[in-house]
What we know:
The chain has 393 residues and is of the alpha/beta class. The protein is built from 11 helices and 17 strands. It is globular, with a radius of gyration of 20 Å.
Amino acid sequence: xxxxxxxxxxxxxxxxxxxxxxxxxxxxxxxxxxxxxxxxxxxxxxxxxxxxxxxxxxxxxxxxxxxxxxxxxxxxxxxxxxxxxxxxxxxxxxxxxxxxxxxxxxxxxxxxxxxxxxxxxxxxxxxxxxxxxxxxxxxxxxxxxxxxxxxxxxxxxxxxxxxxxxxxxxxxxxxxxxxxxxxxxxxxxxxxxxxxxxxxxxxxxxxxxxxxxxxxxxxxxxxxxxxxxxxxxxxxxxxxxxxxxxxxxxxxxxxxxxxxxxxxxxxxxxxxxxxxxxxxxxxxxxxxxxxxxxxxxxxxxxxxxxxxxxxxxxxxxxxxxxxxxxxxxxxxxxxxxxxxxxxxxxxxxxxxxxxxxxxxxxxxxxxxxxxxxxxxxxxxxxxxxxxxxxxxx
Length: 393
């Protein structure tokens, strides 16, 4: 039997979750929604055959098992805590929280209540992320030594109907878009040991372009361009740029460089796309055969959580600071979101304890610039060459 899912927040991203969850009918079924704007929730529900509630009514409903938190970033932590306090499992859009202390409160509350909590992004479940991971695990580029990741855009104010939160505390390219890139880098290269960064902004005020608010001023309260360096525990080094200040560019999304070759990775904000490896023999890029399902979309992480709940999986004890023993793609045969056989200690792979970053350190860096040496960012435990085994602490 699928677990019933309710949505809190019926904005731009909600239809994507509804569609994505529909690809896993044996695991989850979206049945209800709520929003701070009751009319918007009612309209969303009527168009899609859902039950519209107030937020309090949805949290009190005995027919809802998992609640997906699709509120604005500044409200994520507060709403997630309310979901857990109501006895529901919680899956949140990123960011998990705006600082590490709030994130830890959520994890602690979930542990006390015996509930599961998870967080986007889950895009690495898709064929693009899995194909790239397989290429590295198979040694196609030798030992990874470096990487680049670029998220370059002119910002969302030109198209988004409610862009203000992107430019307030909790928004910006690092907390809004970098989670996709960092999650993929961590899944491909392992935990991060050190971070340094500089940040700035091109404008103090932006102009909205969506037809419903065209011409309105959008004040900028946070930095909108961040350049960073990441050193991974494996020794690999990555250069990253996350920006809302770039109108056009021809840089790659993600590339991984190894001792034997190079790997081009597709847009980590999608679930598919071509993965290419440089052929030293033919002196050209070759597209690798895709691995996994091509129809996976947002909601795969929710389905994975539902399977862990149903099969009795328990999130294991944490190691390092906020790191769980995440088993990314550890399903037999390498099937994304495969049925794991119900191992007693198997967590879902978008477990909040696996994904919570050292957000207080990142916040300090992106707001003031500088260099830090935080604890390792959560990542997979490497199981063999070309990357060394990471000890469980």
